[in-house]
Amino acid sequence: MVERNKELDEAIRYIVDMINGELSSLTILGFKGIGKTHFILNLHIILKNIFSREPDLFKKFDLVFLTTLFEFSEFYKSYFSEIKKKDTFLIIDDGDQIWQKYPYELKELYDKKNVVILSTWNSSRWNSLKKKSIALPRSKTMILKKISPKGCINIMKSRLQKNIIDKKRWPFTFDAIELLAELCDGNPYTLMNTADKCLNYALEKKLDIIDRHSVIATSTDIGLFSRNVRKKLFDLTRSQLTVLKQIWEMTTSYKRGITASEIAKELGITRSAVVQHLRNLGKKQILHVSRVKKEVLYSINPDILEYVEKFIQLIDEGIEGV
Predict the structure, then answer these.
(1) How would you class 243 by CB atoms within 10 Å of its CB: exposed for 0-12, middle for 13-18, buried for 19 or more?
(2) Are strands 287-292 and 295-300 parallel, antiparallel or unpaired?
(3) Per-residue CA distances from 261 to 7, 81, 268, 292, 319 (Å)
(4) How are beta strands 88-92 and 62-66 bridged, if at all?
(5) Is domain 5-143 classified as CATH 3.40.50.300?
(6) Half-sphere exposure (CA, 13 Å, Cβ side) for 175?
(7) Using CA atoms, how far apart are residues 125 and 130, in angstroms rounded to an integer?
(8) Cβ–Cβ under 8 Å, residues 156 and 117
(9) Could you give the percent of the chain with pLDDT greater than 90?
(10) Please, which residues have CB within 8 angstroms of residue 302's CB and are 6 or more apart in sequence?
(11) Fold topology of 149-222
């Protein structure tokens, strides 16, 4: 599992506490698509291995995995009744959905001393119920964090290696993979879903390779690219906005990239301060950087120019100072 070793170790420590009677339940929280099901399936495999090495655990617990892959039916109610009678290590995927359908039956299981429960919940659902002061399972919680951009790139590479057709090279260029990793915001489901749409786009347009522009075209169609750009722009500091607005005005006027010294002169601040802001804007891929002889020229990233222009129209035209 990519970037989940620490979280797996943490979960295993809690599971040992559950087996030893020191903890009654553990709820794994995460947003949709973050990988909760994959995570708990791995924990289920680990638990089966533990049980196979420790025969006494089979005598102590029935190991049961419950998921919404089963249709909601009377099956659950009768199943809950059976579980109550036994010492059970119960694993529940999509616990929030089952809790919504059978809150009283599940609450009764959580209150049973002979039942320990490992489950996954959607973070949004958990937080929503918490804000409304609606009863939640009495449980220890841990959160599955976003995957880093580097981790998302590794996921893409791994998936592409497993799906090579006729031993051809990967259909994605590396800058396309980097952009996909950025757009998915650390969510593996969004990453692979968008990658699939890019492949469909390539087939439709009869492209031999998927580059950055193909990813932009696909993600724009599904609204992902614009949401990502808007988030970047709204997250800018007041000082960064000032510099960005200045670059936009000067490049529009000069019809070329602008140097850090030119920006500093216009804003009346030190060049070193401007360079720091330019560096931060560059990390967010808002700027395009080019070199002409010994000069470094800055302009708005052409991929997002129209979004920046619309955004600047919305911000306060009287922003001054850095």
Answers:
(1) buried
(2) antiparallel
(3) 47, 74, 10, 15, 20
(4) parallel
(5) yes
(6) 7
(7) 9
(8) no
(9) 31
(10) 288
(11) Helicase, Ruva Protein; domain 3 (1.10.8)
pTM of the full predicted structure? 0.71
Architecture of domain 236-314: Orthogonal Bundle (1.10)
Q: In the structure, how many helices (H) and strands (E) does the chain have?
A: 16, 7
pLDDT of 275 higher than 90: yes
Q: Distance between CA 117 and CA 62 in Å, rounded?
A: 12
The residue ranges of every structural domain in the chain are 5-143, 149-222, 236-314
Radius of gyration in angstroms for the set of CA atoms belonging to the chain, rounded to a whole number: 26
CA distance 90 to 78: 15
The owner of tokens 């720091």 is 276
Show the tokens assigned to 316.
């306060």
Token pair 């089979």 is found at 58
Q: Hey, what are 224's tokens?
A: 């992902």
Instruction: Tell whether the model's pLDDT for residue 196 goes beyond 80.
Output: yes
pLDDT of 193 over the 60 cut? yes
Amino acid occupying residue 244: L
Read off the tokens for 119. 């489950």
